Every structure is written in structure tokens, then in C-alpha cells.
TrEMBL record:
The keyword Calcium does not apply. InterPro entries: Acyl_CoA_acyltransferase (IPR016181), GNAT_dom (IPR000182), Ribosomal_N-acetyltransferase (IPR051908). Residues 1-71 are annotated as: Disordered. One of its GO terms (molecular function) is protein-N-terminal-alanine acetyltransferase activity. It comes from Frankia canadensis. One of its GO terms (cellular component) is cytoplasm. The keyword Transferase applies. Pfam families: Acetyltransf_3. Keywords: Transferase. This is Acetyltransferase (Modular protein). Residues 91-256 form the N-acetyltransferase domain.
Length: 270
């Protein structure tokens, strides 16, 4: 576990989505209305202005994956992301839905998730509800994140979370993930992370995906290496994890030209 195209009129009320099938990916448009937004629909690869002002909303900047924290840095003018669904073998990756809150709350009581991610403590049902109903959809609308619920393709059971976050106009993003305790060691996280990286490079046209994890988070390191991330070094006191502890973190990255990990299909551009 770790600790993080486009279309959709953010002014549309509710969700009136049309699925567009592209091999193993379905893109849903538009995304739900979350407050006031000025983003315009943008089919395919995003067109972003060369320079963008940044603003910082009130509240602390959470250590994503964001499953209950408040506030984040947002690039003004980022076009909304087209909410996507990805099929990866036995896994189905889809946007979060309000009814996921119960499962998120239950799974995030796990001590390991609370140790390595920044969660409010205690982690209450209201935090999970806020994530599933407001924060996750808002990331798509703002164009700065692509949070996926990872579910069993047959049973729809929630297994994990994978998110591209802090997406920038320069084509950079960070990946974050956690995996339910009962399905660790079964390849769920690595399969989902690999699928999201392929989607990020091939559909969003990203130029770099960064991975960070607290020093000692061996499970996250194992997933990162298995999915082709190159370890670049250690940043001192650069990550805040469970209980508000500031710790050293490992940092690595994947680039589009990096070798595809064994057993993984290569990403396709366009």
C-alpha cells in the first residue's frame, strides 16, 4: 500500500453518462456536478495552457490517497478528466460511488493502512462518505486526479484503491494505492497499478508517473518494483503518515519509454 481523456461538463446536474468502449476501457461522460467549475469538455488527450496559476484552498494539504483529508493544491484552468473504467483481467477499475463508503470505512480500519497512509484518527464513517461522495468525484472534475475503486470483476467486491493524483499541465502525476488486508500477496495491487500506469501513459499522455512511500513500507516498494518503477532515492522528512508523523520517503518513477515489466502488455498511445 502507498502513502497518488478528458471530457465532462462540470455544470451538469447528476450523472447522465454514456459509455464509450475502447478495447479494455470504458469512458463515462459527463462526470457528476460538484459545486461550481469552469472547465470545458475536452475529448481525447487534454489541451492545457502552457502556464497556469495555482491556488491553495484553506486547510492542510493531505497526503494522498485522500480518503478523508481536506484541502489540496489545484491548478486553475485544468480541464475536467473524463471518468474512466478499466478492465484488467479479474479486476475492474471504476470511479468511486457513494455506496462504496461502507466498504472504504471498514477496510480502512486496518492498522497497516492507517500506519502507512495519512488518515484521520479515528477514521469515521463520515470521512469515508466524504471521500466517496465529494472528494473522489471532485478530483475528476478539477482535472487533478483520477481515483479508481478496484473491485472484483465478477462479484464487485472492493479490493483496493489506486489513484493518479497531483496531475499537472506538464504531464506529471503521482500514483497512490492501498490494498485490502484479505487480498494482499495475490497480485491485486500490482495488477491494478500496472493498468492505471498504462492508462495514464496511453490515454492521458503523461510523461512521468512518480511513486512515493515511507521508508520501511516494503509492501509498497515491492509493488512499485514489480510494476516497473525505478527507485531514485530517499527524501528526508518529506512524507506525513499515520498519526501525523513526518518521515523519510522513498521516491521512484516510471516514464513512457521505460521497459514494460515482464508479463504486462505495453501501453498504447492515443
Amino acid at each position: 500500500m502507498h502513502s497518488g481523456k478528458r471530457q465532462g461538463d462540470a455544470r451538469t446536474a447528476g450523472v447522465r453518462s454514456t459509455a464509450v468502449s475502447t478495447s479494455n476501457e470504458r469512458r463515462l461522460c459527463p462526470v457528476p456536478d460538484i459545486g461550481r467549475a469552469r472547465r470545458q469538455p475536452c475529448p481525447g488527450r487534454p489541451r492545457r495552457p502552457p502556464t497556469m496559476a495555482r491556488r491553495t484552498p484553506s486547510g492542510p494539504d493531505p497526503d494522498r490517497p485522500n480518503i478523508g483529508g481536506r484541502g489540496q493544491v489545484v491548478e486553475e484552468g485544468m480541464p475536467s478528466l473524463e471518468a474512466a473504467e478499466i478492465t484488467a483481467g479479474r479486476l475492474h477499475l471504476r470511479p468511486w460511488r457513494p455506496y462504496d463508503a461502507d466498504a472504504v470505512h471498514r477496510l480502512c480500519q486496518d492498522p497497516q493502512i492507517q500506519r502507512w497512509t495519512r488518515l484521520p484518527s479515528p477514521y469515521e464513517h463520515a470521512h469515508a462518505e466524504d471521500f466517496a461522495t465529494r472528494q473522489a468525484p471532485l478530483s475528476w472534475v478539477q482535472g487533478t486526479g483520477a481515483p479508481f475503486a478496484v473491485v472484483d470483476a465478477t462479484t464487485e467486491e472492493l479490493l483496493a484503491s489506486v489513484e493518479l493524483m497531483h496531475i499537472t499541465a506538464q504531464g506529471e502525476a503521482e500514483i497512490g494505492y492501498w490494498c485490502a488486508a484479505h487480498c494482499r500477496g495475490q497480485g491485486v495491487a500490482s495488477q491494478a497499478v500496472a493498468a492505471v500506469c498504462r492508462w495514464g501513459f496511453g490515454t492521458l499522455g503523461l510523461s512521468r508517473i512518480e511513486w512515493r512511500a515511507a521508508v520501511g513500507n516494503v509492501a509498497s516498494l515491492r509493488v512499485a518494483r514489480k510494476t516497473g518503477f525505478v527507485l531514485e532515492g530517499t527524501l528526508r522528512q518529506a512524507l506525513v503518515v499515520g498519526g501525523g508523523r513526518r518521515v523519510d520517503c522513498w521516491v521512484g518513477s516510471r516514464l513512457p519509454a521505460d521497459p514494460t515489466p515482464p508479463g504486462r502488455p505495453p501501453h498504447r498511445s492515443g
